[in-house]
Task: structure prediction
Amino acid sequence: MYDFYLPDVYPYLHKLPAALWVTIEISILATLLSSIMGVFLAIMRRSDSKVLRGVSTTYVEVIRNMPLVVLLYLIFLGLPAFGIVFSGYVSGLIALTLNSAAFMTEIFRAGLIAVPSGQFEAAQSQGMSRVTVYRYVILPQVLRTSYAPYGNQVIGVVMGSSIMMIATIEEVTAWMYNTGAVTYRYFEVFVVAGIVYLIVCQMANVARIMIGKALFKSAAAGGKW
Amino acid sequence: MILIEYGGALLRGLGITLWVSCLALILAAVVGALIGIARTSKFMSLRVAATAYTEFFRSLPTLVMLFFVFYGLTAAFNINLSPFVAATIALGLEGSALMSEVVRGGLQSVGKGQKEAALSSGMPVWQVELYVVWPQAIRVMLPPAVGVYVSTLKGSALASSIGFVELMQTGLLVRERVQNDYDGFTVLIAVAVIYTIVNYAISQAGAHIERKSNYAQ
Amino acid sequence: MPNNLKSPNDAAAQDEPILKVEGLVKRFGDTTVIKELSFEVQPGQVVVLVGPSGTGKSTFLRCVNGLEDIQGGKIIFEGEEVKARHSNITAIRRRIGMIFQNFNLYPHLTAVENVTLAPVKVLKESPESAKERAMELFRKVRLEHRATAYPGEMSGGEQQRVAIARALAMNPALMMFDEPTSALDPETVGDVLAVMEELAAEGRTMLVVTHEMAFADHVGDRMLFMDGGYVVEDGPPSELLNNPKNDRTRQFVNSVLKPEAAMKGTADSSEVPPNIAAR
Result:
């Protein structure tokens, strides 16, 4: 039977918090940036302009079907051919953001579809501008339907951040791989990294539930809102 | 033209990618079905265990799984897994968590009344499942199962990092060989295009199935 | 053959009851839905269960079919005790046909496949003869032209008649109807009731939960008024409807029979608020 021996890993544990912070930081940044992109792309998707709709649709379909790691290699290894050189961190962030944005777009689009068209019409009939309609009438409703899938996508970003080690970024997966390589305690480092990811994801889940409760408290009190 | 020279190699890589993700999907379907059934079980302990399984594997990045199976299991149990076997197992386990959700959703989509109607006609439970519940559930499961395949296929690109020569790794190897930066970029773009087209086609097939099954309802 | 044990000294000059309920108690958690229920159904009888919603009528049918556990008392069907978790339950269910409010037809099978599934899989009939019999049943419920349609392509009334044919295909000793017309559009209710009336005329034993008082009066041999988990009144339908002895029965009868509004549209839910009933 395998002799599970964690102490070999202890000397490397001090590097773990920094690695964890990189994972969390890049996940938060990518989530924020891709959310913004997603909102715009989702609104483009509903635009009257065929061109804007086409750009948005194409973007989503291409990115959604391309593995994240391929996108990362394109940016990290491919672009330098044109003299465009990003650091590993920036390459990773760009890849993660572009990737996540496609999924965010789909989430927001589904949320937009769920808002009855009568809502647009009612708001516009009161003379609200398009921006006002979106800001005060549509987005709050979209937020509600999109909330749960959005939470899943945040976890998806954390999962995706693990491939940043390919761009030489020292996050949790890189810590696991590197520590395994020097100690040869691959099983032990896996257990440690697995627990870390599990905790991060469960914390995200708990945060989602708590924020959701706070945001949609009035809904529970009765009525749709 | 670089793509004429290496196009064959890339297509071979694609074949390996499709093959490994097919095998992984089969593993994912079998394990996922068991876990999914356990998740709809009336026994609380089974449900909790199955949910924990799903949550655990969903919280593990594919790359971590690949490293674990390829390096970790090798070290722990002194077995020698080829990158191919390791990739199949890792992707299959990843997929099984997704599949368990798909199976659970499919089973739960079949109304309680269906089971009751079948039971009240005197069918034993296994017949109720076989003739009434599963035929309906599978229709619901198919489109999202296609989604799991696409996600497995995308995940398989990560198997390049354990040295498994599939489409991505083929692209990287070719890129190293060509020296010229522009040609290297072309190769990477070609890889990206191949993945995108293949996955798009599979997704569209899934959407087609979904439309068809909606129409039949 | 519902029963071969005729009691030698049958004072009531009746067969052994096909269904015997003794002190049945059904609870969901802390809520007791059926507090104490005892009655018997004789072969060939059409018993109509009426009463306000939520008084356990449907739950009672589900108990008889072993779809619900019971917390007290006994249900005896053809001399055998019905227990939800006992291995004889499938054998008992074969002998009891159940018609659901929402039909519960199998959406992935055609009408005729819905009807033949259990005969072929449970009774091991040959598919050919099962189909032949199914077509006979479709003639009986006047749906022979719809045999190959899928449930999704049928009206509610058609679906419910397929469901009746499906139950009949097992040749049950007892047919139970759980609000069979409550989910139907008003114009299709008549077709279903007509089929049920024919079954009653054939001498089938039926246990019907319904809010169709005219049908109950016309077809029922006996009416049980249930309220609050008890049988409040038991007797011939005309008696209960025209001359109710119990206050609650009277109130209920008034609420369902008198206001026209209660018969239309919302009549099916029968949940007539007390203030309307009192009018």
